[in-house]
Amino acid sequence: MWLNSMKRGFNKKCPRHLNRPMVYLISFTYFLSIFFCLYNWESLMARWRHRNDSKSVLIFAATNYFGKPINNSWLESCPEDVKSYCSITNEETSFSIADGVLFHSRDFNEQLLSEFKFPRRFDVPYVMMTQENPFYSYL
Length: 139
What we know:
This protein has five helices and four strands. By secondary structure, it is an alpha/beta fold. Keywords: Membrane, Transmembrane, Transmembrane helix.
């Protein structure tokens, strides 16, 4: 009897459905703190900061940007370290060695896709670029 009154009193103060998200949050926070302590967070961050910068990144622009070509001039406002290892080209000969393929959503259409003469490369990411709200992108 006393236990039942305690349960009723506890449930009135903090409903059971509100306890579940808090338990998940506390568990997740505990897991992350243990993980970072065990994994040595500093060495992880050091490896991330000192990645292999000797490899340059080439992006193949498969479409234009509102009819204008996408090329290295897009990198003018980027920091110098980005300019040193990243380049953008729309030359078709570069497709086979590109590290990524870029499409602009407004210049991308079904006709372009059917006429796209390059086979799909599954070893590189295909990126759809847009600055529009997805609702207005017609994707």
